[in-house]
Design brief:
The complex is a heterodimer of chains A (335) and B (279). Chain A is α/β, with parallel strands linked by helices and 335 residues long. Chain A contains twelve helices and 14 strands. In chain A, a hairpin with a 2-residue loop joins β9 and β10. Chain B starts with a helix and ends with a helix. The chains are: A alpha/beta (335), B mainly alpha (279).
Chain lengths: 335, 279
């Protein structure tokens, strides 16, 4: 392992594409052996940051060391110790699963019988034996992603970049990918993961950088980020949506905070500072004749953190998630 | 998550850990072994997508038969006599056309995610491109072999026999590998496969038609003859005719190799620089 305790130390990374500032001064410090989440909406600069750190793109300004090597001067040394799983399948569609892994094993120095042995081992580990002889273009999304990740692990890297590893996957495949990331960590690999899913960062990442418009706008553990927003959130569901305005006014009066109206017409939420006061307010709200269907007091979700930090939502509802490109356009307009 | 799913997840995690914890790290592969790996990839692609050979197989048959019978009677008295002159030219034209597809294929390939992976590997930068060019040798050999075969069926008889045919295909491969750097450079430089095609034809049309592929340059106006006499494609055709008829001179062979060498010297560093240019 690197002598440094940090796998990545980046300062002021900048990348322009024409007039667009894709990355506008990103600082990152990723401790070795941890999962680091880079969280942000589409177009926030996550992929560009990863491509720079994986030596695919030279930054216009700023400096970074990756696994103790200078990003610009020692890119070959970095390449021999990292792996990248890009956002779009970085495997050969025309080749079979086995052939793809054998190609990479050969390129990475395996010889003779070891080439096929290593490829077969990986297929087994990633539950892809049945697909060994099938061309990638016949694979399902989840299988493709697993093969893609397997292809990054022909030699277990010291640092793995996973760019949106679960975008577009069904929940089962997503869980499988999460399992793979956890197994990697247990083995001591550092993982830098980008995601637009708050739940994913919450589940996997030891620390999270929230990135928006090419800048890191918040950094910390998931708990720290939540704490920065307030001690928690009161979620209220009403029996009758018509009561929402009255309930909102009541809670604003008692708690001194403007309630947030949820998409669900009968729900609202309030950031709270004092749990006991919130509980009393709820009892009084119920007594005042508003039909309360239910309420809960919880830590704020990362969704709320993102909203509080940026003033806009991090993601749209999963149902609209099918086409990431379309989403980007919509997001652009919304922002 | 139900318990059985959880159990299987844990099982998978255990196998995964075993597979990853080997931390096997063989010594880094040499540039030659990188190139061979990519040449292997090119062969696999031919195996899985044989349609891409259609062009390499049908075009030479079409050209040989068509031009033999269209021009044969008028230019040489009979198709059979004309074929003796035409065949080496058609071999060159077919393979030079086929070399354009190297650039088109490369351009298509580069736009896919897999090149991000290749570029993040500790391998020789140019090996994906050079490896693909080696895979093209198979296509070129196949194309030129078919031209000879069709020629033999129509009555073509090389004076130098099998040795001459093998030698002419070898020279053709060497020279087109050199010329191919033009299309490789275009493939790396341009934005779309379509653009590579248009640019490619811009080079190929004058080079293959304003040449001695179909007729001897002696009947052409002096300005055109001057061009044909230095046209690299024509020089290659002359060398091939020399090999197949047993009249090859050292001068002819030397002249045919100049342009491919110059193109390689100029274009390969440009292609490398463009490929490394990070986008």
């Amino acid at each position: 392992m690197s002598h440094s305790e940090f796998a990545i130390e980046a300062e002021g990374l900048v990348k322009h594409f024409g007039k667009t500032k894709a990355v506008d001064g990103v600082d990152l410090r990723v401790r070795a052996g941890t999962v680091y989440g880079v969280l942000g909406p589409n177009g926030a600069g996550k992929t560009t940051t990863v491509r720079m750190l994986a030596t695919l793109l030279d930054p216009d300004a700023g400096r970074a060391t990756v696994l103790g090597h200078d990003l610009l001067r020692e890119s070959h040394a970095i390449r021999s110790r990292i792996s990248l799983t890009g956002q779009f399948a970085s495997v050969d569609e025309d080749l079979t699963g086995l052939e793809n892994l054998m190609l990479l094993a050969r390129l990475l120095g395996f010889r003779g019988r070891d080439v096929k042995r290593r490829a077969t081992e990986l297929l087994e580990a990633f539950d892809l034996e049945e697909a060994a002889g099938k061309q990638i273009k016949t694979f399902s999304g989840g299988m493709r992603r697993r093969l893609d990740i397997a292809a990054s692990l022909v030699i277990t890297p010291d640092l793995l970049f996973l760019d949106e590893p679960t975008t577009g996957l069904d929940p089962r495949s997503r869980n499988q990918v999460w399992g793979i990331v956890r197994a990697l960590i247990a083995d001591g690999t550092t993982v830098l993961l980008t995601t637009q899913y708050l739940e994913e960062a919450d589940q996997l990442a030891d620390r999270i950088a929230v990135i928006d418009h090419g800048r890191v706008i918040a950094e910390g553990t998931s708990g720290e980020l939540k704490a920065s927003v307030g001690s928690g959130t009161l979620h209220v569901t009403l029996r009758d949506p018509a009561d929402r305005e009255r309930a909102g006014a009541f809670l604003k009066d008692r708690l001194g905070v403007e309630p947030h109206l949820e998409d669900e017409a009968s729900s609202l939420s309030v950031q709270i500072a004092d749990t006991a006061r919130a509980a009393r307010a709820m009892a009084d709200l119920s007594d005042s004749g508003v039909g309360v269907g239910g309420f809960s007091l919880g830590q704020p979700s990362l969704d709320e953190v993102f909203f509080a930090l940026t003033g806009h939502a991090a993601e749209e509802t999963p149902a609209k998630e099918t086409d990431p490109k379309k989403k980007k356009e919509k997001k652009g307009k919304a922002a | 998550m139900n318990t059985s799913a959880q159990a299987s997840t844990q099982e998978v995690a255990a196998v995964l850990r075993a597979t990853l914890s080997t931390r096997e790290r063989p010594p880094q592969a040499s540039a030659v072994s990188n190139i061979l790996a990519f040449a292997w990839r090119a062969l696999l692609k031919i195996k899985h997508v044989p349609e891409q050979l259609f062009d390499a197989l049908i075009t030479p048959i079409m050209f040989t038969v068509m031009f033999t019978y269209i021009f044969g009677g008028a230019l040489a008295g009979s198709p059979r006599q004309y074929l003796q002159f035409l065949l080496p030219g058609i071999m060159v034209q077919t393979v030079v056309f086929a070399s354009m597809y190297t650039g088109v294929t490369l351009n298509t390939d580069l736009s896919k995610g897999i090149y991000d992976r290749f570029r993040s590997l500790p391998i020789w930068h140019l090996s994906p491109i050079v490896g693909a060019m080696f895979g093209d040798f198979l296509r070129y050999t196949l194309s030129s072999g078919i031209v000879v075969l069709v020629g033999l069926l129509l009555g073509y008889r090389p004076v130098t026999g099998v040795v001459g045919v093998v030698a002419s295909i070898a020279l053709l491969n060497v020279c087109v590998f050199g010329f191919g750097w033009i299309f490789t450079t275009l493939g790396v430089a341009l934005r779309s496969p379509g653009a590579v095609m248009s640019f490619g034809w811009l080079f190929l049309m004058p080079l293959t038609f304003a040449s001695n592929v179909f007729v001897d340059s002696s009947t052409m106006p002096s300005w055109l003859k001057a061009f044909v006499d230095v046209n690299p494609v024509a020089l290659l055709v002359t060398a091939l005719r020399g090999i197949l008829s047993g009249t090859l001179t050292a001068r002819q062979l030397g002249l045919s190799l100049i342009a491919p060498a110059v193109v390689t010297a100029i274009c390969s560093p440009i292609a490398l620089a463009l490929y490394k240019r990070k986008r």
